[in-house]
Backbone:
């Protein structure tokens, strides 16, 4: 199964219509020629298309490739969960930005599992080719057993579907399922599940007993390593749950770009869309114009260092020249300390509260001023964690210059080029995004929002693979 991985890209995707998403997904699945089926009760896809909440659209797929690429190449999607260990449920969950809010699609592939409990191997999964619905023992496992292992008894209509499928199932598949359940969940829980499949009223205490057996199965020697590797998704999200019901963490989004590139517009639009989706946001300033460490602003006033921009004239020695080259070298170290202080004082507490922090600029400015090439810049980039998402608002340089004519066009062009090169280094933990701000109201931020949501659901990375 191919992994869905976001790379550096230009933010241009637009929010989709749910019916269109469903149509594209169905067409892509049919084109593969592989077996696939919707999961859950009848008419689940239609209900999902008409919904405006994050309820999952679940489907099973027998192939080895990733049919979700048809969605990720066309719509703004965030990977919010994934698991690929064959000892447990294998799946990929996407959040798709739609016109009615975030919509979740969950792909299960290979054998049917609930956590580490194997229900039906892929070779025994039967599908109605006309309705793309699971049939036989696979349908019973999906409609009755899966909900119980997740802590609930299915609604009466869903139970009736499960019982009808059980009655029509291949006898060998029924016997095989009973043996697997007995081996993994014990004889008592299995007997109660099969009795419910044959028409008995389920015991209200069955879900609790089944969950206990599920927990024990998770700690079995043959699967405990897989359980530990997926512990972040196995443990209940509780207070760490985000708007989609999954565990989230704080995210840093850093916007870089020359004056006039559109950083403020992108920051405002991103914050608004994330808040509409249910995420909490905050802001931080990482430029050099305000918020200085105690002593830096005073030193600039007393010594006449009126700017942190690099001097146009080369210095002749330490402390020489009208722009105090020696003091600029020292100031670079002051700013390195200031950046660390700003992160610890402003950003870290917000991340602990699982907010999305949208920062105007980042420590990369120290590469150019107050002393270009200073080792303080490298130290600052090591001490201050890299942002999760690095964003460059961009537009034709003539448009940028019209917005900020007080800056020279050549200077703006050179600085914007350096920021593009910075994104090429891929310094962010999760994604680098270029946002086109040349339109009258700015480009769609759907792809950027998706990148942030994906970072919020992913574990924090120490080193991002290049």
Residues:
């Amino acid at each position: 199964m191919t992994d869905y991985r976001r790379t550096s890209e230009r933010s241009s995707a637009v929010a989709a219509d749910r019916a269109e998403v469903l149509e594209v997904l169905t067409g892509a699945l049919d084109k593969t020629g592989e077996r696939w089926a919707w999961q859950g009760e009848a008419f689940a896809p239609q209900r999902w298309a008409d919904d405006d909440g994050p309820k999952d659209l679940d489907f099973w797929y027998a192939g080895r490739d990733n049919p979700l690429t048809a969605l990720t190449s066309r719509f703004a999607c965030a990977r919010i969960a994934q698991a690929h260990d064959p000892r447990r449920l294998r799946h990929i969950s996407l959040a798709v930005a739609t016109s009615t809010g975030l919509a979740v699609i969950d792909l299960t592939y290979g054998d049917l599992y609930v956590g580490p409990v194997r229900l039906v191997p892929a070779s025994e999964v039967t599908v109605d080719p006309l309705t793309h619905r699971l049939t036989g023992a696979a349908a019973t496992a999906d409609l009755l057993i899966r909900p119980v292992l997740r802590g609930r008894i299915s609604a009466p209509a869903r139970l009736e579907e499960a019982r009808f499928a059980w009655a029509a199932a291949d006898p060998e598949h029924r016997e095989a399922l009973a043996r697997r359940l007995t081996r993994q969940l014990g004889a008592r829980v299995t007997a109660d599940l099969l009795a419910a499949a044959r028409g008995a009223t389920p015991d209200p205490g069955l879900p609790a007993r089944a969950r206990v057996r599920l927990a024990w199965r998770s700690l079995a020697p043959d699967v405990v390593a897989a359980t530990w590797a997926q512990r972040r998704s196995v443990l209940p999200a509780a207070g760490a749950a985000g708007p989609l019901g999954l565990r989230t963490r704080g995210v840093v989004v850093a916007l870089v770009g020359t004056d006039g590139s559109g950083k403020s517009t992108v920051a405002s639009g991103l914050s608004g869309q994330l808040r509409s989706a249910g995420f909490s946001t905050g802001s931080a300033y990482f430029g050099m114009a305000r918020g200085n460490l105690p002593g830096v602003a005073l030193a600039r006033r007393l010594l006449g260092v009126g700017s942190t921009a690099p001097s146009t004239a080369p210095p002749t020695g330490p402390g020489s020249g009208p722009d105090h080259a020696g003091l600029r070298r020292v100031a670079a170290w002051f700013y390195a300390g200031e950046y660390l202080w700003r992160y610890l004082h402003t950003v870290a507490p917000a991340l602990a509260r699982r907010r999305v922090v949208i920062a105007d600029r980042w420590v990369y400015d120290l590469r150019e001023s107050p002393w270009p090439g200073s080792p303080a810049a490298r130290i600052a980039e090591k001490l201050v964690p890299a942002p999760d998402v690095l964003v460059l608002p961009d537009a034709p340089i003539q448009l940028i210059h019209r917005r900020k004519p007080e800056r020279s066009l050549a200077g703006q062009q050179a600085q914007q080029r350096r920021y593009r090169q910075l994104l090429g280094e891929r310094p962010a933990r999760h994604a680098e995004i270029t946002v086109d701000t040349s339109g009258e109201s700015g480009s769609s931020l759907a792809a950027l929002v998706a990148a942030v949501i994906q970072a919020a659901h992913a574990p924090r990375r120490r080193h991002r693979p290049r």
Summary: Residues 325-352 form the longest helix (28 residues). The longest strand covers residues 101-109.
